[in-house]
Every structure is written in C-alpha cells, then in structure tokens.
Amino acid sequence: MVLYGGTTEVIDFTRLATGNTMIGWMYGGIEATAEQSNGFNPTNASSTIYEVWLQKF
C-alpha cells in the first residue's frame, strides 16, 4: 500500500497505479427486507464484512 507522507493510515492516491486496489474492510451495515422500513419490514444490523476497493482510471 502506498501511504502519504510517512503516515500509517492515509493512502496517497497520486502514487497508486491505475486499476483496482483493495484498501481495507468495512464491518456491518443495515439489512433490510424492503426498500422502505416500517413495522412489517424492519431493518437490522448486519455482521457482514465487506472488502473496500478503490478504482483509479
């Protein structure tokens, strides 16, 4: 991973190669059974882990 200015957490976008780069993971989110939430269609917390990708053209 190409980091900015000696930091350990900031990605230097200008030094990344063109294409796709996985930059981390995201935990959780909102699960829904329908587009609109109500008493019949509740939402729940998700325990899914997602890969986060950056696409540079």
What does this structure look like?
The chain is elongated, with a radius of gyration of 17 Å. Strands 1-2 form a two-stranded antiparallel sheet. It contains no helices and 2 strands. The chain is mainly β and 57 residues long.
**Number of helix segments?**
0
What's the Cα radius of gyration? 17 Å
Low-confidence stretches: none
Total beta strands: 2
Task: State mean pLDDT (0 to 100 scale).
Answer: 92
Strand order of the largest sheet: 1-2
Globally, the shape reads elongated
Beta-strand level of the residues, as a percent range?
over 45%
Ends apart, CA distance between termini: 17 Å
How do the SSEs run, as a string of H and E? EE
Defining traits:
57 residues; mainly beta; two-stranded antiparallel ribbon; 0% helix; 49% strand
Quickly describe the structure.
By secondary structure, the chain is mostly beta strands.
Topology:
Layout: E1 19-32, E2 43-56
Antiparallel strand pairs: 1-2
